[in-house]
């Protein structure tokens, strides 16, 4: 399905962008792992957001998602694993599924965890971010799952159902490295190497520059201009992923600006 805008991330910036796009009569899809994958859901009390005094993070996020859905935004459950620039639109892979946007707004929050040594080099050669897409390739084989999302246990179970021998690692602070030269041969966790044929990595957040080629970063943040345009025409960014202050109010404001910029971009004549 082709949407006017695919928004990646389901936090306050994403919902704000979706509401603004819908108000402009644009179609919008929000790709999100769900409320439990959003760090704010762990906050017991938020007291600095206007109009919602002393609400918990979970309550706020559930209300926001309901509001986006009621406004007509489509919520696509899952994690975007890549964004492909196709010239006049963008293809977004969400697990084994695919959706398309004339524009994209990245609302991916602060980067969750560093890329492991060896991860980028062996991506597609044993490293995978998608159990549903690649699990069957390793039927009867040893796989390691470094799972830092709320569905990690369920994904490990899915791999077992597919016939893989699975070791699940969930400790966020441990030193992980993917071993191998041409293909994955193991996962190092601290000093121990666990031999395996594949390493599946599930993070709730993604380093945005691993999603989309040509996206310029400024340290850990996406480089944007005052209209929240990124270095890739047609791609915008909003919220924590563009830099501090890491606050709901700033994320909501930027979601609104990025959506207005995306709407303007779609209305501009293209050569
Ligand atoms: C415990 C806690 C308490 C806080 N308390 C307050 C407070 O009281 N007041 C305040 O103003 N701020 C507070 N904050 C900060 C606030 O949560 C953030 O500033 C705000 O949520 C940023 O919104 P965002 O939409 O930019 O990003 P986020 O809310 O972080 O949402 C980004 C989402 O994108 C998802 N994502 C990333 N990559 C992908 C991908 N490839 N595919 C699909 N989804 C993806 C992430 O999983 C995440 O769910 C708190 C934060 C935490 C962690």
Structural class determined from secondary elements? alpha/beta
**Gross geometry:** globular
Largest sheet: number of strands, sense, barrel closure = 7 strands, mixed
CATH superfamily of the largest domain: FAD/NAD(P)-binding domain
Kindly estimate the percentage of residues that lie in beta strands according to DSSP: 25-35%
Structure, described:
- The chain is globular.
- The strands form 4 sheets. Strands 1, 2, 3, 4, 5, 6 and 16 form a 7-stranded mixed β-sheet that branches.
- The chain has 6 helices and 16 strands.
- The chain is 24% helix and 27% strand.
- 42% of the residues are buried.
- The chain has 271 residues and is an alpha/beta fold.
- The longest helix has 20 residues, at 248-267.
- It has 2 domains: 2-112 and 206-267, FAD/NAD(P)-binding domain, CATH 3.50.50; 127-202, 3-Layer(bba) Sandwich (FAD/NAD(P)-binding domain).
- The structure holds flavin-adenine dinucleotide.
- Flavin-adenine dinucleotide (FAD) binds at residues 8-14, 31-33, 37-40, 42-43, 46, 48, 79-80, 107-109, 204-206, 211, 239-240, 246-249, 251.
Concise structural overview:
With 271 residues, the protein is an alpha/beta fold. The protein is 24% helix and 27% strand.
Which descriptors would you attach to this protein?
16 strands, FAD/NAD(P)-binding domain, alpha/beta, 4-stranded parallel beta sheet, 24% helix, 7-stranded mixed beta sheet, 271 residues
């Amino acid at each position: 399905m082709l949407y006017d805008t695919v928004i990646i991330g389901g936090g306050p910036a994403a919902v704000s962008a979706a509401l603004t796009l819908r108000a402009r009569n644009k179609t919008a899809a929000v790709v999100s792992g769900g409320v439990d994958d959003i760090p704010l859901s762990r906050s017991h009390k938020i007291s600095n957001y206007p109009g919602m005094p002393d609400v918990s993070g979970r309550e706020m996020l559930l209300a926001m998602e309901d509001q986006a859905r009621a406004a007509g935004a489509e919520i696509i459950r899952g994690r975007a694993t890549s964004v492909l620039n196709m010239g006049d639109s963008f293809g977004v892979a969400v697990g084994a599924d695919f959706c398309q946007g004339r524009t994209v707004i990245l609302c991916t929050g602060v980067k969750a965890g560093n890329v492991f040594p060896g991860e980028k080099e062996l991506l597609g050669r044993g490293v995978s971010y998608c159990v549903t897409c690649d699990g069957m390739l390793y039927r009867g084989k040893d796989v390691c799952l470094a799972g830092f999302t709320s569905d990690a246990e369920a994904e490990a179970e899915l791999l077992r159902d597919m016939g893989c021998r699975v070791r699940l690692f969930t400790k966020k602070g441990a030193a992980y490295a993917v071993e191998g030269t041409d293909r994955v041969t193991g996962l190092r966790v601290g000093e121990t190497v666990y031999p395996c044929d594949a390493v599946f990595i599930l993070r709730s957040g993604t380093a945005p520059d691993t999603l989309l080629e040509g996206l310029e970063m400024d340290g850990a943040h996406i480089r944007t201009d005052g209209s929240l345009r990124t270095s890739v025409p047609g791609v915008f960014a909003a919220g924590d992923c563009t830099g501090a202050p890491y606050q709901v109010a700033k994320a909501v404001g930027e979601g609104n600006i990025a959506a207005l910029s995306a709407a303007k971009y779609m209305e501009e004549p293209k050569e």
